[in-house]
Amino acid sequence: MGHSAESRPWQPFLDRDDAGARLARKLHRFRGWDNAVVLGLARGGVPIGAAVARGLGLPLGVMVVRKLGVPGAPEVAFGAVATYGGFTTTVHLAATMEHLRRAGFAIGELDEVDQAERAELARRQDLYVRGAQPPVVGRTVLLCDDGLATGATMRAAVGLMREAGAGVVLVCVPTAPARTCEELAAVADQMVCLQPWPDLHAVSEAYLRFDQIADAQVLELLANP
Question: Spelled out in words, what is the top-level CATH class assigned to the domain 16-223?
């Protein structure tokens, strides 16, 4: 299914809490569902997920994801890795990988990035997850992030939920490039994006306040969603 957007003219999000609350209103049909769970992609997606879970009366969990950034240009993703409930998956962006190959990047350079990000993935998993994570087998899973660029981390998250046996997988974000929305709509059961921008250079463009999220904030939200 396609994505649904807020009516225009689009109003900027005050912060992640505001964005999550507005996303929850768009997802009102899931309010109180016994078989649904909200997962926030750490770190920036956790405040979004918390607001969605709060607005819909659903349980909140966390999925740890890490972008695999191009050496020397880490803001550009060549893939992503995600972990949840004992499952870990990696995706690579084929077009970017081909570009890097043509540019002369060695596999060893990319492997070093992969190893470093997996180490950080493990650190965050150990820090954020205290006990069993909410089960996803056969359930409707709402994957929340504060926005998408290439969509690499969300693509890894969707693939991971398929592998873990989720019943229905929704991608739920305040903003993303329209093309990324179309690409995610092809792999998720539904893509919900409030503001699919024709040309989005950075997620922060859609927000008035877009502060970095610290580990302590993630832990606080998971303890008191």
Answer: alpha beta
Domain locations in the chain as residue ranges: 16-223
3-class secondary-structure state, position 106 = coil
At residue 19, what is the residue type?
A: A
What pTM did the predictor assign? 0.95
DSSP letter for 43, please: T
pLDDT tens-digit profile of 164-221? Answer: 999 999 999 999 999 999 999 999 999 999 999 999 989 999 999 999 999 999 999 9
Distance in angstroms (rounded) separating the CA atoms of residues 115 and 50:
30
Angle at 100 between CA 94 and CA 102, to 5 degrees: 105
Q: How many CA atoms lie within 13 A of 173 on its CB side?
A: 30
Cα 221 to Cα 117: distance, rounded to the nearest angstrom: 23
